[in-house]
Design goal:
The protein is an alpha/beta fold. The protein has 20 helices and 18 strands. Strands 5, 6, 8, 10, 11, 12 and 13 form a seven-stranded mixed sheet that branches. It is globular and about 75 Å long.
């Protein structure tokens, strides 16, 4: 420990020893830096390890205690959050060599968050353990490449064991338990997510928005969402969230590509005369057509957005037909339809009460389609589901059925201020992602217990050599870290807690809030299998690969001109007088 910070020096095996790290401040919390001794050989591993240790211990421990972090932003109010990936993204070190370590941890957190939507804190804690032990073994002469192979061999075995331990989520109560834990124990969030899934189905569309009251609310809106965003960012009309939003809009749906200006002029004229925004959904919009739309959007504020149609082949045709039925419009280019886009009439447009388009997806809300036609379309899909034997087809048909029948659930997050709402939105989003992961792959014991139950499976592995065996042993010890850390933060000896859990019945674990051993399933202390699996895979992949590094290459930092900085400072000072 150095000045109260968890930085411990690692000994170099080489004859030439690096300068002592005694008295060096935390590389995250202060501006003091470790000496730039060498930039190749063992030193990069040493510096990166120190940064990873400080980064994780100083940040992740707070999350495990349920504490929030306040992040300064270049504009607006500071951001208050408990979300691990949000904090990870906000950390940037001035020293390039140490910043590499921080960026690697950010990659672990980002990858886990993108795939599973949660588990970033677990992933970073695991990454720290694997990297630290890997470097220690390498410093004693072990082969880093073989250690990595042993690590990945062990990880594969753990993943297979997790699949065996996983239990499907079957009840609304289990869904609420998963959501509650991911929301840092907020039962209100857990219950509202469970209610949303109950109303729109487990595969239904659920979005999170800012509420207008002090309380959280759930609203069910009929709508359709697909994974295609705007073709050009110039269509953005809402800076917050980088999205395009329209109310009471017309929808032009085409199976074919639109390239000619002449083909869309009639549609633009009708929409303009009726004072309606226009959403164009087509195979593609390019060439003169796209240039004209963008130019008119920028020059005269034309209310229009172009979106690529989702899917491919027959799946695309079916989805476009679903959209047409839901919105009350026609699909141009469809087989059997003789009219062209140039001949469009007002009744050929689909109509929606609201549309939201981001760079990644499009959401059509409050479609004006005929209820009888929608029910007829739903029945057609149900009949196809009954006869199809392809799992892929069943999945696609269920997705279409959910969009047509169940609508969209909107979780409106309330609060007394923007800061409070944003912090709660982070937790709601995490909880929603974790719940989806649980529905997808099932659940396992929480509190790090699932990883502990996988340790015996590693005893059956047969490594090719001693260095691979070292990699397997590293994972054995690493699997104990989450449970030990939780126990330590509760004020008890982590190793003793882990030993008692290992000797207890399969469903027994440690409840850190109550300070006692309980049946984890009955208490609702559970984790989504996908979250645990993804956290371990990402942590092991990045940390073990890092252990094979022998050198660090960075860009040469640009020198700042003192005169320019001085002038800026004076200007800023003058501005502060007003």
């Amino acid at each position: 420990m150095t000045d109260g910070h968890p930085i411990s020096a690692l000994k170099s095996p080489r004859k030439e020893s690096p300068p002592s790290f005694k008295g060096v401040f935390c590389t995250v919390c202060t501006s003091a830096y470790l000496p730039s001794w060498k930039r190749c050989g063992f030193q990069p591993q040493e510096e990166i390890t120190l940064v990873i240790q400080c980064f994780i211990v100083r940040v992740c421990v707070m999350f495990l205690q349920g504490r929030t972090v306040i992040i300064e932003q270049s504009w607006g109010s500071p951001k208050v959050t408990k979300d691990g990936v949000t904090v990870a993204k906000s950390i940037d070190l001035k020293d390039k060599y140490k910043n590499i370590g921080a960026k690697l941890v950010q990659d672990v957190a980002n990858n886990t968050n993108e795939e599973a939507g949660d588990g970033t804190t677990t992933a970073t804690v695991l990454a720290r353990s694997i990297a630290r032990e890997g470097f220690e073994m390498i410093s004693k002469g072990a082969n880093p490449v073989e250690i990595r192979r042993g690590v990945m061999l062990a990880v594969d075995a753990v993943i297979e064991e997790l699949k065996k331990l996983s239990k499907p989520v079957t009840t609304p109560e289990e869904i609420a338990q998963v959501a509650t834990i991911s929301a840092n124990g907020d039962k209100e969030i857990g219950n509202i997510i469970s209610d949303a899934m109950k109303k729109v189905g487990r595969k239904g569309v659920i979005t999170v928005k800012d509420g207008k009251t002090l309380n959280d609310e759930l609203e069910i809106i009929e709508g359709m969402k697909f994974d295609r965003g705007y073709i050009s960012p110039y269509f953005i009309n809402t800076a917050k969230g980088q999205k395009c939003e329209f109310q009471d809009a017309y929808v032009l749906i085409s199976e074919k590509k639109i390239s000619s200006v002449q083909s869309i002029v009639p549609a633009l004229e009708i929409a303009n005369n009726h004072r309606k925004p226009l959403v164009i959904i087509a195979e593609d919009v390019d060439g003169e057509a796209l240039s004209t739309l963008v130019l008119n959007r920028l020059k005269v504020g034309l209310q229009v957005v172009a979106v690529k149609a989702p899917g491919f082949g027959d799946n695309r045709k079916n989805q476009l037909k679903d959209m047409a039925v839901a919105t009350g419009g026609a699909v141009f280019g469809e087989e059997g339809l003789t009219i062209n886009v140039e001949d469009i009439q007002p009744h050929d447009f689909g109509k929606v009460g609201e549309v939201i388009v981001t760079k990644d997806d499009c959401l059509l809300l409050k479609g004006k389609g005929d209820k009888v036609q929608i029910e007829k379309r739903i029945q057609e899909i149900v009949e196809q589901l009954e006869v199809t034997t392809s799992e892929y087809e069943k999945e696609k048909l269920n997705e279409r059925l959910a969009k047509l029948s169940d609508g969209v659930a909107v979780l409106k997050v309330g609060g007394t201020s923007d800061v409070e709402v944003n912090e709660k939105k982070d937790r709601v989003t995490d909880a929603l992602n974790a719940t989806r992961a649980a529905v997808e792959e099932g659940i396992v014991l929480g509190g790090g217990c699932a990883l502990l139950r996988c340790i015996p499976a590693l005893d059956t592995l047969t490594p090719a050599n001693e260095d691979q065996k070292i990699g397997i042993e590293i994972i054995k010890r690493t699997l104990k870290i989450p449970a030990m850390t939780i126990a330590k933060n509760a004020g008890v000896e982590g190793s003793l807690i882990v030993e008692k859990i290992m000797q207890s019945a399969a469903d027994v674990g440690y409840d850190a809030m109550l300070g006692e051993f309980v049946n984890m399933v009955e208490k609702g202390i559970i984790d989504p299998t996908k979250v645990v699996r993804t956290a371990l895979m990402d942590a092991a992949g990045v940390a073990s690969l890092l252990s094979t590094a022998e050198a660090v290459v960075t860009e040469i930092p640009k020198e700042e001109k003192e005169a320019a900085m001085g002038g800026m400072g004076a200007g800023m000072g003058g501005g502060g007088m007003f």
